Amino acid sequence: MPALRVDELTKSYGQTLALDTLSFEVHEGEVFGFLGPNGAGKSTTINVVLDFIRPTAGRVEVLGLDAQAHSREIRSRTGVLPEGYQVYDRLTARQHLEFAIESKGSDDEPETLLERVGLTDAIDRKAGGYSKGMAQRLMLAMALVGEPDLLILDEPSTGLDPNGAREMREIVREENARGATVFFSSHSMEQVEAVCDRVGILQDGQMVAVDSVEGLRDSIGGGTSLRVTVDRIDDDALQAVRSLPTVSNVATEDRDPPTITAQVDGSKTAVLAELEDHGVEVRDFSTTEASLEDVFQSYTTGAEVTAR
Amino acid sequence: MSTEADIDTDTGTSRTGTTSSASSVNPDSVRAVARKDFRDSIRSWVFWTLSFLFFMLLVGTTGLLSYFGSDIAAQGQTTEALVGMVQSMTSLIIPLIALVLGWKSIAGERQSGSLKILLSLPHSRKDVLLGKLIGRSAVLSISLITGFVLAAVVVAALLGSFDIADYAGLLAVSILYGVAYTSLAVSLSSVTRSTTIAGAAMFGIFMLFYAVWNGLLTAFWMLMNLDYIPQNETTAQIALLFNSLSLNSAYQNVLSLVTSMGGFTDQTEMVLEGMFGSVPFYLQDWFSLIILLAWIVIPIAIALFRFDRVDL
């Protein structure tokens, strides 16, 4: 049974199509990165999952239950860090946690949870004076109440400094190790690649790719980018390099000394050998891996991936 | 509240087939939301200011009565007079407080996004509405009770004859009156995500009962006097019925049910019997109580039905 099953989900607002027959599954026990640029439909999807909004067509199942018919039971087994929320200004962190604990009927201690997110100092301060990062930590603590089977984190890194983002990922790993499925939305690949088992990329209300982090990297064929500094550019040599089956995107940079760049899936030495066979002197070369950020960019902007 | 607690939207009318488990009312949830809302909406100074306001209202009125009202005191009707005078003031003040306390209750949370915190937890939307209604009603009711109880000592000392039943009766119907306005405020707050529109709606409600309702009635009588509307028993009945449906009239008329004051004089009763054969049911004080309760139940019932069906 998948932890989350989105089936042909469509949501339109008048003429605007926010989600277009979106389908995907999140497996039980995995950390799933839900990636897409702002406005791709990530929050709309999460809002349907939590029954904040109703689908135009299609359905969503969470923990094997219909998202609309059994929303209360779903939310009792789910921890949510929503996006675009505001904390209750006049309540302290402790009171926020007490409310979540009472609502879920769990026996957690506010202190323990706030310690996990590093907010112990502010436990009895009113949340109205919190920074965005502190509010985010508070909401993460509320999401952890009652050891949920599913954690839905909508842009959890918002407002967190790099250290806070790292701590947040650490908590995601701990929760996952406990057995929780984590559904983690973000507009930045950087935030998800370190922690997610699989990643789905959403663009204009449609899933354009779902794969493991490695699979995504491979699927782009980005492989390695090779950058060769040579003494001169020779058209025959370039032609020979282009004809190699494992090489793509061969380009030249007319600088001094001239440079040839190419995407290489296989052996790099084959490229160098080909150049030297044509009498081109290789003065220097370097390679770079295509980063996942590039992969993400290529899916969401339509640009071709070239490793840097 | 038990009427609403039984409401279940599993009617099949919802296109998406919402079932009871998601949209039902869970008393524990309602209590959790109400308690949180009470804690969040009540700044302690609001509570004490309101309590002090009601206290001063009672003590001040009593002071005036004991100073100027020797005739009234002589007739042993001081509590009755106090109830009448206080009621005419709370009739204006309670709606203002209730509307101000309630106008942002839902719209404000929707606008700011804090509603997402409430609804990420296992509460139904009905739980949230009822919890809000109870939480905000509690703020108003408890400050009314505090003001009345603290004032009772002073009032009893100042008044020649203190009738505790009348005094408690006024408090009881004032609470109902306040809850009715809170119900209107919370319900209207739930139909929009703009606090500006919600604020305009609060003003509209105030105007409805303070200007529009009476204005319509005046216009009706005028048209009747000018013979644009026939002057007969039916039209007179319609006008009187319309008048008694107003929340503010109900607050005034219900007093005779719970206190020793008011009610019809024998003369009025004779006139009414002469006109209609008997005093019409809608002019009797038990009917005012029903109207008062209806103004609590109907707005929130409509809001409960509607709020379940919208995108937040």
From TrEMBL, chain A:
Domain ABC transporter span(s) in chain numbering: 4-229
Keywords on record: ATP-binding, Nucleotide-binding, Transport
Keyword Transport listed: yes
GO molecular function: ATP binding; ATP hydrolysis activity
Stored InterPro entries: AAA+_ATPase (IPR003593), ABC_transporter-like_ATP-bd (IPR003439), ABC_transporter-like_CS (IPR017871), DrrA1/2-like_C (IPR025302), P-loop_NTPase (IPR027417)
Pfam families noted in UniProt: ABC_tran, DrrA1-3_C
Stored PROSITE patterns: ABC_TRANSPORTER_1, ABC_TRANSPORTER_2
Family in the record: Belongs to the ABC transporter superfamily.
Protein name as annotated: ABC transporter-like protein
Automatic annotation (TrEMBL), chain B:
Transmembrane segments: 45-69, 81-103, 138-161, 167-188, 200-223, 286-307
Pfam families, per the entry: ABC2_membrane_2 (PF12679)
Region (Disordered), start-end ranges: 1-25
Keywords of this entry: Membrane, Transmembrane, Transmembrane helix
GO cellular component: plasma membrane
Top-rank taxon: Archaea
Biased composition (Low complexity): 10-24
Molecular function per GO: ABC-type transporter activity
Protein's name in the database: ABC transporter
Species in which this protein is naturally found: Natrialba taiwanensis DSM 12281
